[in-house]
Structures are given as structure tokens and as C-alpha cells.
Amino acid sequence: xxxxxxxxYVTNVCIALALFALCAVTNSLFLAETxxxxxxxxxxxxxxxxxxxxxxxxxxxIASTGAYDIMSYGVSYLISIFVRQRERAExxxxxxxxxxxxxxxxxxxxxxxxxxxxxxxxICLAVYYSIL
Length: 132
What we know:
The protein has helices spanning 2-26, 35-64, 69-82, 92-102, 109-131. It has two domains: 1-65 and 106-132, no CATH class; 66-105, no CATH class. The chain has 132 residues and is mainly α. 78% of the residues lie in helices and 0% in strands.
């Protein structure tokens, strides 16, 4: 049971670390010569995964409420006009009820990991301005 609750966090932390490492290699973190340069690059390296993960977390929150159902319905309706591939719901209300039954519960793990990275970036920014 604990494994099921911890695994999404581990996965998101690994994604954040991969983004951090990509940013660190791209900005030559390990070749920085001064403390100011190092802290500036660390600020960037924490902020990039923070922004991406927070953005995806907020998008998944919005999607879990059914906000994108109207766009999905419209696209499937448009496709069904040209190609009869499946039976579609009679109305948007029926479609929304069908989608609500299949919808998974929202997990806050992506948002939490993103916010932690973003706050770490803000801390590095504060350190950068205190050194500068």
C-alpha cells in the first residue's frame, strides 16, 4: 500500500532530476568558476523543472475536473462527421457523464514536486542576490 503512494513521487522526482541534469549540463554547471556563477546556474536548474512540473500538475488538476471534455467532445464529433469509426454519445451531457465515470482521481504529486523545485529555485535566487 505504501509503495503505491510513494511510487508517483519517486517517478516525478526522477523526471525533475533529469530536467535538472539536462539544464546543468547545458549551462556548464560543473565548469563554473565563481560562487555567483554557480548559484545563478543552480537557480536556473531548479526553476526549469519547477515551472514544467508545476505547469503539468496544474493542467492535470484542470483535466481531472472535466474542463477539457467539451474540446474532446468537439474533436470526436468533428472526426465522426468524416469517419464513422465508433458510436458517439447522443449529447454532450451523456458524453460528460460517461467521461466522469471513467475519470481517475487527481494526484497532486506532479504539482508538489514542481512547487518544491520552484521554491528551491527561489531560494537560490535569494542566495544569488545576497552574494551579489
